């Protein structure tokens, strides 16, 4: 087995564990994490955020929370999709490798949402599975594009030597 395959397989397992730990947080912990993130970002980029009243700050955070949480789903699974695509590098046929990568992410997203049904204050949402899978799909498509250009460059380089 290639060293690269082992490295990306280990990274994939570790990333799945990170996702599992996020999903194991109860509703209050999850909300505190995302709200804390939003407060930090707002403090850095919203002019005069310090001058807002606490009610105004809470309202802004509340307004942004849904989008931030869904973007986090998308991003976390985009990383998973990219890792899995690399871990499956022994699958030489790119269409099969892509389908297997996105399929893995989809199945993990399903299991992740099922897991959340057992966590206090959380629920499993099929819409989150779709968002997660979309993130993985985008990462796989970007990976394919990068691979295509890298192979084209390598081919030109090889042709230039002969």
Structural overview:
The chain is an all-alpha fold and 162 residues long. It has one domain (3-161). It is built from five helices and no strands. Helix 1 (3-23) runs parallel beside helix 4 and helix 2 crosses helix 3. The longest helix is centred in the C-terminal third of the chain and has 36 residues, at 126-161. The protein starts with a helix and ends with a helix.
List the helices and strands and how they pair.
Blueprint (H helix, E strand, L loop, with lengths): L2 H21 L3 H19 L8 H34 L6 H23 L9 H36 L1
User: How many structural domains?
Assistant: 1
Look at the structure and give the mean pLDDT. Answer: 95
**Helical segment count:** 5
Distance between the termini: 31 Å
Based on CA atoms alone, the radius of gyration comes out at 20 Å
Which bin fits the share of residues in helices? over 70%
Q: Note poorly predicted spans.
A: none
Instruction: Report the major sheet.
Output: none
Strand content: under 5%
Instruction: Tell me the number of strands.
Output: 0
Coarse structural class: mainly alpha
Estimate the global geometry from the Cα principal axes.
globular
Helix-strand string:
HHHHH
Keywords:
globular; mainly alpha; 162 residues
Compact description:
By secondary structure, the protein is mainly alpha-helical. It is built from 5 helices and no strands. The model has no long low-confidence stretch (mean pLDDT 95).
